[in-house]
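stage 2 :: seqdesign
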């Protein structure tokens, strides 16, 4: 039974360590619990980003940055708001201020834009993202061609979520095994 307790502690500690080690570094929280995180932590120009803000008492907010194509509308509850936007294709590499206004509170953060990937070969260049929102209409009025489609794998947020879920599943398996062993011991001793 002592070895089983060590196994449960080890599994729990490993899951906590994995979550801590893989949390994106682009999260800045002030002493008052307010902070802005950007995922991916260093987006290239033209990349979609997810913003997460903590410490807002309201259910909505707006995140503004010169690096963004458009202001990000953030929504949520319990002090955590989430929203998405895109980094301008013309955004210069380096740190850009992100200012979030929610109710009467202002939370500042930073997005670090990575250098644009170098073009390879002499083939056609990738389509540039707009520098302002596009009014595309509705009901299928925007035409999309196969050349416009981009396939992307999971990002850092999905990887962290997967690791957290794997840690929770491993912990559940260990705890269930421990319970079965205790029940088997009780059956054998006649309690």
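stage 2 :: out
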């Amino acid at each position: 039974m002592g070895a089983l307790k060590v196994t449960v502690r080890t599994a729990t500690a490993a899951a906590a360590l994995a979550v801590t080690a893989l949390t994106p570094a682009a999260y800045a929280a002030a002493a008052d619990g307010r902070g802005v995180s950007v995922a991916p932590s260093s987006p290239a120009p033209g990349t979609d980003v997810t913003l997460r803000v903590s410490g807002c008492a309201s259910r909505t907010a707006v995140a503004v940055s010169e690096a963004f194509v458009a202001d990000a509308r953030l929504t949520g509850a319990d002090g955590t708001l989430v929203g998405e936007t895109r980094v301008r294709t013309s955004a210069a590499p380096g740190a850009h201020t992100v200012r979030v206004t929610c109710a009467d509170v202002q939370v500042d953060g930073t997005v670090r834009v990575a250098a644009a990937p170098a073009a390879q070969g002499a083939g056609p260049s990738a389509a540039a993202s707009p520098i302002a929102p596009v009014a595309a209409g509705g009901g299928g009025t925007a035409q999309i061609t196969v050349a416009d489609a981009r396939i992307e794998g999971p990002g850092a947020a999905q990887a962290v979520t997967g690791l957290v879920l794997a840690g929770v599943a491993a912990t559940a398996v260990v705890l269930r095994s421990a319970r079965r062993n205790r029940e088997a011991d009780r059956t054998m001793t006649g309690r």
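stage 3 :: structure notes
- The chain is about 30% helix and 25% strand.
- The longest helix spans residues 156-189.
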